[in-house]
Amino acid sequence: MKDLLQHWFDTSPQGGAILEPVRNDQGEITDFRYQLINKALAQLHKRTQKEIAGRCLKEVFSPARASVLLQRSLAAISSSNPCHYHEHYMQEDTGIWISTTLTRTTDKDLILVNVQIIDEQKKSEHDLERRLAMESTISAISSRFITLKAHEVDTYIVEALGHISKYIDAERASVFLYSEDYQEGRCQHEWSAPESAPERIKSRPDPVSVSTGCGQNCQMVRLYACKLIS
Predict the structure, then answer these.
(1) Are 34 and 52 contacting, i.e. CB atoms less than 8 angstroms apart?
(2) Domain residue ranges of the chain, discontinuous segments joined by +
């Protein structure tokens, strides 16, 4: 059973370690030493297991990082409940989201460390937050349009373009009205960021040139009035 548990620990895709406290002559905890560490966690720290096992936090990490881990470990060893942390962890020039759980053992003053990479979870949460924020923005704009008087509509369209553009980090947004054959169009409303050049394109004889003339990141959405009012 011991060999089986050791094999599971070493081959687990989740980072794992056991920390033991290091005390001074007064019995105060001054550091924590890696009693065990598995391959996954060692790789997360860009080191081998041999380079970390038996060494203290202050020997493995930078002073700033070691201080953060020391404070978390002290909190964990003083608590009867697991301590959870989510953080954006830098690996050289690459950042990843990790979830760390520190749990004090019941029989000894040891800390069980469990680390999971949660990039996909964070991305899903971020996408959900952005979608909800966009829905809120659209809802607010729609509600505002309902209460507008006829002579206020044109002004608020520009303001609405600004709200949406700021949300998607766009520098300019325009509303073009086209002829029925879609061969001629005129810029009816336009918003541009303060730092953008205050250019206003009055007309575009070629609809395709609207997207080609706005830069590589331009996006064009075509709406048909007959479908909007049907």
Answers:
(1) yes
(2) 2-117, 148-228
The burial class, CB within 10 Å (0-12 / 13-18 / 19+), for 214 is: middle
**What are the two backbone dihedrals, phi and then psi, of residue 14, each rounded to the nearest 5 degrees?**
-90, 145
- Do 24 and 51 touch, CB atoms closer than 8 A? no
**pLDDT tens by residue, 119-141:** 777 777 777 778 888 888 888 88
Which ranges of the chain would DSSP assign to H, the alpha helix? 2-11, 39-44, 49-52, 57-60, 63-77, 119-147, 153-167, 208-212, 225-228
Residue 84 contacts residue 101 (beta carbons within 8 Å): yes
Please tell me the class of the 2-117 domain. Answer: alpha beta
200-223 pLDDT tens trace: 554 444 544 444 445 555 555 555
CA-angle at 48, arms to 110 and 88, nearest 5°? 70
pTM: 0.55
Q: What share of the chain is helix, strand, coil (3-state, %, to 5)?
A: 40, 25, 30
- Inter-residue contact 47 to 38 (CB < 8 Å): no
